[in-house]
Amino acid sequence: MGLLATATTPFLPQDFATLVNPLWSRELRARVVSVTPEAAGAATLVLKPGRWSGHLAGQYVGIGAEIDGVVHWRTYSLTDPDRVSVTVKALGLVSSHLVSLRPGAVVRLRPAAGDFTWSDRGPALFLTAGSGITPAMGMLRAFRGRIPDVTHLHVARTRDEVIFGSELRALGHRLVEWHDDTDGLLSLDRLDDLVPDWRQRETWACGPAALLEAIESHWGDSPKLRVERFTPPALGGGSEGVVTFARGGVSRRTSSTLLQAGEDEGVLMPSGCRMGICYGCVIPLLKGQVRDVRTGEVHGEPGDLIQTCISTPAGDCSLDV
Amino acid sequence: MPLPAHLTPADIEAIGKELDAIRDDVIASRGESDRAYIKKVIKGHRTLETAARITLLGSLFPPAWLAGTTMLSVAKILENMELGHNILHGQWDWMRDPEIHSTTWDWDNVTPAADWKHTHNYLHHTYTNIIGMDRDLGYQLLRISPDQRWYSYHLAQVPMNIALMFLFEYGIALYDMEIGKAFTGKMPKAEIKRHLGKTWAKIKPQVLKDLVVWPLLSGPSAATTLAANVTANVVRNVWTHSVIFCGHFPDEVQEFTIEETKDETRGGWYVRQLLGSANLDGGKAFNLMTGQLSFQIEHHLFPDLPSNRYVEIAPRVRALCEKYDLPYVSGPMHKQLAQVWVQLAKMSLPPKQQPAHPKKLATSTKQSAKASEAA
Question: Which of A112, B79, B277, B309 lies at a CB distance of 3.0 to 4.6 Å from A55, suitable for a disulfide?
Answer without folding.
Answer: A112
